[in-house]
């Protein structure tokens, strides 16, 4: 009875119900994207886009448009700029990402310094899921739901893009279109998650679940399932912890994901061959 009350009591409040639902949706979507990023070796790309949206968030606040719109515009600018520099120079991709995201993030900090009385930097960087409005909650749920649906529907094409784009191109798949479609979906997922977990914490949620699942299985579909499960569990722990212990929701989610990764890492060092085959 106590256990049932423990889970039901917070859901009697609308703000907690929204927090639980939105955190779960954000966690599941970012976990799916995480698997593709880990396989592609693009963990830094999520970092780059997450930082690059800061000027868009500040600009959107100043002119009075939705945060998501301003963030998406700058996310796409970052993607296009990274692609252009990579295609027209000999600079390696990770260096290009580092240059672009630090420049955009610095621009955002500069803009915040001019409107510091109006913009809460902590809110922009770390999110505020407990204070999310009904409109923002619906926006986040619908946008990320669509992203998840599209990625799962076309997962075979995106998997080919991650594993062997050369072969995909050879058999007639439009790899350039797939490339920019994936980047656009990633940008949408990040911008849709900012208000919930913030710019900084979304980076961890795009890396840790996929990395954890990668340690446990060699099958991609199993990897996605494990990553989503880890992320949803962490999101629920974060939401309930914020209610019972009055601590930051987004930070708790990321911390739990990190703990799970460490435990899985230790487990993989000591598991038997039979245990390994069960997941494979």
Order of helices and strands: HHHHHHHHHHHHHHH
Rg over C-alpha atoms, rounded to the nearest angstrom: 19 Å
The tally of beta strands, per DSSP, is 0
CATH superfamily assignment?
Answer: ABC transporter involved in vitamin B12 uptake, BtuC
Structural class: mainly alpha
Tally of distinct domains: 1
Briefly, what CATH class? Answer: Mainly Alpha
Q: State the end-to-end CA separation.
A: 38 Å
Mean pLDDT metric = 84
Share of residues in helices: over 70%
The total of helices stands at 15
Keywords for this structure?
280 residues; ABC transporter involved in vitamin B12 uptake, BtuC; 0% strand
Commentary on this structure:
There is one protein chain. This protein is mainly α. The protein has one domain (18-279): ABC transporter involved in vitamin B12 uptake, BtuC (Orthogonal Bundle). Helix content is 83%, strand content 0%. Helix 2 (14-40) runs parallel beside helix 8 and helix 2 crosses helix 9 (155-163). The two termini are 38 Å apart. The mean pLDDT is 84.
